[in-house]
Amino acid sequence: MKNVLTIYFAALKVLIVSSLVCITLLIFLNVVLRYGFNSGLFFSEEISRLAFVWLVFAGAQLMLHENGHIGVDMLTSRVSPMVAKYMLVITQLLMLYVTWLFLLGSWKQTLINLHVGAPSTGVSMALFYGAGLVFSVLSASLIATQLIDNLRKPAGSYRPQRSDEEAHVLSSTETGVLK
């Protein structure tokens, strides 16, 4: 199972890099064609927008997996490990609920726009809203897995991964207060 997840998140990284390269090349080529040759690519804005939407959702999925999102531990660092664990469980349950709401909204928008084509390419607009569907389903499964792992571990065993630089910054500060 770990190999499948490793391959999946490596594929996400490839998708993110590919999207960035695609956006950069399309916009650069369009600018050169417009100013240099008084023409342009009619589809570059739509394809760039589509690549950006998928890039954002893939990046959000990757950061959710790597715990790279912004976290504020001002309160949880001052409570007992058991209370901190329950706070994390509540947070993960709220994340699951919001992901469910996002899934419902994305589903409705995908169905509404299934037969609506983009103005210049004619690509179904459901492809834009489908990114939210994919993100919601995969994120919900990831959050649920993290929730189950959190419930199985004893209180106080959760430690987010930190780089050496972050550890240095943390060691030079008091809990919640900068020196």
TrEMBL record:
Annotated TM spans: 7-35, 47-65, 86-107, 127-148
Cell inner membrane found in the keyword field: yes
Keyword presence, Iron: no
Region (Disordered): 156-179
Polar residues biased stretches: 170-179
InterPro entries named in the record: DctQ, TRAP_DctQ
Pfam family, one: DctQ
Cell compartments where the protein resides: Cell inner membrane
Coiled-coil stretches: none
Swiss-Prot/TrEMBL keywords: Cell inner membrane, Cell membrane, Membrane, Transmembrane, Transmembrane helix, Transport
Top-level division of the source organism's lineage: Bacteria
Membrane topology: Multi-pass membrane protein
Domain Tripartite ATP-independent periplasmic transporters DctQ component, chain residue ranges per copy: 23-152
Annotated function: Part of the tripartite ATP-independent periplasmic (TRAP) transport system.
Subunit structure: The complex comprises the extracytoplasmic solute receptor protein and the two transmembrane proteins.
Cross-referenced PANTHER family: 2,3-DIKETO-L-GULONATE TRAP TRANSPORTER SMALL PERMEASE PROTEIN YIAM
Family named by the database record: Belongs to the TRAP transporter small permease family.
Listed name of the protein: TRAP transporter small permease protein
Organism annotation: Phytopseudomonas seleniipraecipitans
Lineage: Bacteria, Pseudomonadati, Pseudomonadota, Gammaproteobacteria, Pseudomonadales
